Amino acid sequence: QEILFEFSGNGFLYNQVRIMVALLLEIGSNQRPIDDIPRVLAAKDRNQARGTAPAAGLYLVDVSYND
């Protein structure tokens, strides 16, 4: 089994992608309601996101630089 998440942005904070993955996995396993994402973002509190996904299995696929 494999779950593919793709994130793109112009910068990420330390562990940000792992935190987002953990939140999405909690929603996918019904540990959180899907409408919890806007609440967590609005709270601007890292503790609201709770977990951090393990680094194993997460891969950086591409980095591009715009001039």
List keywords for this structure.
single chain; 67 residues; 2 helices
Radius of gyration from CA coordinates: 13 Å
Helix content: 25-40%
Order of helices and strands: HH
Count helical runs.
Answer: 2
Cα end-to-end separation: 39 Å
**Are there runs of 5+ residues with pLDDT below 50, and where?**
none
Average pLDDT confidence is 91
Number of strands: 0
Structural class call reads mainly alpha
Task: Give the DSSP E fraction (strand runs of 2 or more residues).
Answer: under 5%
Rough outline: globular
Largest sheet features: none
Molecular structure report:
With 67 residues, this protein is mostly helical. It is 31% helix and 0% strand. It is built from 2 helices and no strands. The protein has helices at residues 16-28, 36-43.
List the helices and strands and how they pair.
Elements (H helix, E strand, L loop, with lengths): L15 H13 L7 H8 L24
What's a quick, concise take on this entry?
The chain is mostly helical and 67 residues long. The protein contains two helices and no strands.
